[in-house]
Design brief:
The complex is a heterodimer of chains A (326) and B (473). Chain A has 326 residues and is α+β, with helices and mostly antiparallel strands. Chain A contains 13 helices and 13 strands. Chain A has two domains: 66 residues, no CATH class; 214 residues, 2-Layer Sandwich (Alpha-Beta Plaits), CATH 3.30.70. Chain A starts with a helix and ends with a helix. Chain A has a five-stranded mixed β-sheet with strand order 12-11-10-3-13. Helix content of chain A is 26%, strand content 15%. In chain A, a hairpin with an 8-residue loop joins strand 4 and strand 5. In chain B, helix 10 runs antiparallel to helix 11. Chain B has one domain: Formate dehydrogenase/DMSO reductase domain (Formate dehydrogenase/DMSO reductase fold). With 473 residues, chain B is an all-alpha fold. The chains are: A alpha+beta (326), B mainly alpha (473). Chains A and B meet through strand 4, helix 6, helix 7, strand 8 and helix 13 of A and helix 2, helix 5, helix 6 and helix 12 of B. Bound molecules: iron/sulfur cluster (3 copies).
Chain lengths: 326, 473
């Protein structure tokens, strides 16, 4: 029933031999996408090919002989599970979304889905069409997880499978989650998704070594959500949605440094940005203390969103059941 | 004269014992058919559950918005039904209500069984039941779900003890009066009774112990019972969701549980009375009194219900307002108003008339109340989940609606069948009335009558004496 997971674990323990080169690559800042060819090329460093077999290092430092054709390449997570629970030392991640620039193209969603191998209807960052009331202006509203500082979702988790890290990020450990979905009903922003059935993933993704920092491989019966791409942040890179946005809408940065950077690499002072644009946080009154700030959609640089389509017609919070059936 | 009275008393108690033991002696064809039917329903549900385990909760109608559905609603309902039995029995014991005697056993049994299956429902709802031990290994006391686990397990243990303790003398009776000891089933019964009776032989020391234990249990079970449904409400009330974010949820759920649970107790009484011919013991008087209890509880529930809806309805805040719109005049309005009028106000009206507390009308009212309570749980759980703070936009059609599908119905009905099955089997093995308690009641009655007569005689004598005295003066 759940053998997928067991297999991949077993593979990790027994057969997930991190090819010799991985060790070297690891010390060089370590890309987790190491191709088999690359790895095998590097293998001789630690003993070399021996007949049909090759010598491989395991994570515990032992050397094994194995048939290269039988070896699976394993995607390694950036850090151990324990490390992933603590977060990146000294950081306090924060996101700013400039609604004045968002034209609703959904490239952010697509980039996110590509990075996390997500299926198309599961939008970790979802672009809403918003309209406060009949006479107020419509605008696009990209919404990731807010990584709340007072997160209702982590509070209710019975097994500490979803947790808040010291760097502000809220993650899920899908090797611990029991699938009770308390966190889903507790999140006021509909941020979380459940793996209702066996996830469809390529063998490559399915065999990756799991880390809460990269959120895959997915497992049936567990939750997932936007993770702020901590694996990228660890490498000093920007999350997928930030780099994917052609309009430079999304800024990501470190509150401790008081700096945020957008997709084009422009870095600005966070406090100044928030001050100048009268930034706000969505549904502040709920007291969840989001780590995502919005700049109001003033002087929009794109055509006003049309809300004539059936699904968008319902003004925010007033969608009728019939509309939703589409 | 005293001798003939004792004989009378012995006869009466003897008849009582036989009346209570009779159902355990023989399986009628109807019983066998009924049990077969229940086993089939439960077996089918078990098969469907295995299918669900294999393919994931995706085989149910639940999706990302409505991520809790029929299973969790039924969980709340079953726990609610379980609430009353033990509590009513404990309260009646503590207040020394003599009329409780014939009905405590079935009330306590109802608690035991519905708690058993109520506890199973959230496990059925888990995405990863194989990891259930994480609740112990990684359990976080801050989570309302852990409060539920703790309270329900405590209540289950408590009410099992509470059911079992007063059964011990009856188990000894079963053991001593077992007629069929030849067949395999007979041997099993002998073993069962002997083990469970734990060497009871009715010494005064044992009686003393039993009474003491009962007293302690009666007192501690009441706060535990109240805690259970309070924390069940907390898994909803501790969120920020429109419709759940309410300070009245704890007492509201407790009242709802008591009202539906006591109705369940009446249904149990009515069923056993009829099926096992206990008309002599469970009388219209019992129904009248239980009816009054349910009436009082329904009034409390109606009051809390009013608070729960009227206060937000006066304000009609954005998301909550949209939710209430759905309930008051939207897609759920028909169900909502039928629930409010049909299962709350109508029962109040019926039960406040003495004729409404007669056995038949009261039983019908209670069926309505119990079904209504179930639907009400669904109406509390599902519409709220369809009213998140973010609009529901451009999602697959099945995410934005919910109605339980065949998988959920099969599994849920299997649990319901399980409840009936355990009750039926229980009633075929053990007496459905606390024999010794009823006997004690008969004795007390007799004593009272004797005492009354004695007093009357004495008073007569006194009067005579006084008469003499006055005349002397
Ligand atoms: S947005 Fe939702 S999932 Fe994300 S941290 Fe806040 S409550 Fe949790
Ligand atoms: S679904 Fe998983 S992460 Fe969410 S509350 Fe339950 S155990 Fe925790
Ligand atoms: S990619 Fe940028 S512009 Fe396009 S929807 Fe996302 S945030 Fe808006």
């Amino acid at each position: 029933m759940f053998e997928n997971e067991k297999n991949s674990r077993l593979k990790f323990l027994k057969l997930s031999l991190v090819l010799g080169g991985t060790v070297a690559a690891g010390s060089l800042g370590f890309k987790r996408l190491l191709t088999k060819e690359e790895a095998l090329k590097d293998a001789p460093i630690c003993g070399g090919a021996y007949g049909a077999n090759t010598m491989v290092f395991t994570t515990d430092g032992k050397v094994y002989k194995a048939d290269p054709s039988k070896l699976h390449e394993v995607k390694m997570p950036p850090v151990s599970n324990d490390e992933a629970r603590k977060g990146i030392p000294g950081k306090k991640f924060v996101m700013v979304i400039d609604l004045a620039k968002c034209d609703g193209c959904k490239k952010c969603t697509e980039a996110c889905q590509a990075m996390h191998y997500t299926e198309s209807e599961r939008e970790w960052i979802k672009v809403f069409k918003m309209k406060g009331s009949k006479d107020t202006a419509p605008y696009y509203f990209p919404k990731p997880c807010f990584h709340c500082d007072n997160p209702p979702c982590t509070k209710v988790c019975p097994v500490n499978a979803t947790f808040k890290r010291q760097d502000g990020i809220v993650l899920i450990d899908n090797e611990r989650c029991i699938g009770c979905r308390s966190c889903m009903v507790a999140c006021p922003y509909s941020t979380r998704f459940f793996n209702w059935s066996h996830p469809e993933q390529t063998p490559e993704v399915a065999n990756a070594v799991y880390s809460p920092e990269q959120s895959y491989p997915r497992r049936m019966g567990t939750v997932e959500k936007c993770d702020f791409c901590p694996d990228m942040l660890r490498q000093g890179k920007m999350p997928a949605c930030v780099t994917g946005c052609p309009m430079d809408v999304i800024y990501m940065g470190d509150q401790n440094e008081d700096a945020v950077t957008n997709g084009s690499g422009v870095t600005v002072k966070l406090s100044q940005l928030l001050e100048d644009n009268a930034a706000y946080r969505h549904l502040e009154e709920l007291g969840t203390d989001p780590r995502v700030y919005y700049l109001p959609p003033k002087n929009r640089k794109y055509p006003t969103p049309s809300l004539n389509e059936k699904s968008g017609e319902g003004i925010e919070k007033k969608i009728k059941m019939d509309d939703m059936k589409m | 004269m005293i001798d003939s009275e004792t004989k009378d008393l012995n006869n009466e108690i003897e008849t009582l014992r036989e009346d209570c033991l009779r159902p355990t002696r023989r399986w009628s064809t109807i019983t066998i058919l009924w049990v077969t039917f229940l086993v089939l329903v439960a077996g089918w549900g078990l098969g469907v559950y295995i299918y669900q385990l294999r393919h994931g909760l995706g085989v149910t109608a639940m999706r990302n918005y409505v991520s809790w559905g029929l299973y969790i609603s039924t969980f709340v309902f079953f726990i609610g039904i379980s609430h009353s039995g033990t509590l009513v029995s404990a309260i009646l014991r503590i207040t020394k209500q003599e009329w409780r005697r014939p009905i405590t056993r079935s009330a306590e049994l109802l608690t035991f069984v519905s708690l058993l299956f109520g506890g199973i429902m959230p496990i059925i709802d888990l995405g990863r039941p194989d990891r259930i031990l994480n609740l112990v290994v990684h359990g976080r006391i801050q989570s309302p779900l852990i409060w539920d686990v703790i309270c329900i397990m405590t209540y289950f243990t408590g009410s099992t003890v509470f059911l079992f303790l007063p059964m011990i003398p009856d188990l000894a009776l079963c053991r001593d009066r077992l007629t069929d000891t030849k067949s395999l089933f007979g041997k099993f019964k002998k073993w069962l009774y002997t083990t469970l009776a734990m060497g009871w032989h009715g010494s005064s020391e044992q009686w003393h112990m039993l009474e003491k234990c009962m007293k302690i249990m009666t007192i501690i079970i009441i706060p535990i019972a109240v805690s259970v449904h309070t924390v069940v409400s907390y898994i909803f009330a501790m969120t920020l969701r429109a419709g759940w974010d309410s300070t009245v949820f704890g007492p509201y759920f407790v009242a709802g549980a008591l009202y539906s649970g006591s109705a369940g107790v009446i249904l149990g009484m009515a069923a056993f009375r009829k099926l096992y011919h206990l008309e002599k013991y469970i009388t219209p008087r019992h129904f009248n009194l239980m009816g009054q209890i349910v009436l009082a509880l329904t009034l409390i529930y109606a009051y809390l219900n009013l608070n729960e809806y009227w206060i937000p309805a006066y304000k009609m805040a954005t998301t909550e307002g949209a939710l209430l719109g759905d309930l008051f005049w939207g897609p759920y309005s028909k169900v909502f108003w039928v629930l409010q009028f049909g299962t709350v106000l109508l029962p109040i009206f019926v039960m406040s008339l003495p004729v409404g507390r007669k056995i038949l009308p009261l039983s019908i009212t209670c069926i309505i109340i119990v079904i209504g309570a179930w639907v009400k749980r669904y109406i509390i759980v599902v519409p709220t989940l369809l009213h998140p703070f973010m609009p529901i936009q451009e999602v697959p059609a099945d995410w934005a609606t919910y109605f339980p599908n065949w998988v959920e119905w099969s599994v849920t009905m299997a649990c319901l069948a399980g409840i009936f099955l355990v009750i039926t089997l229980f009633s075929k093995l053990f007496p459905m009335m606390a024999v010794w308690e009823v006997a004690e009641g008969i004795e007390l009655d007799r004593d009272k009558k004797n005492a009354f007569e004695l007093r009357k005689k004495r008073e007569d004598g006194l009067l005579k004496n006084e008469g003499v005295a006055t005349s002397k003066i």
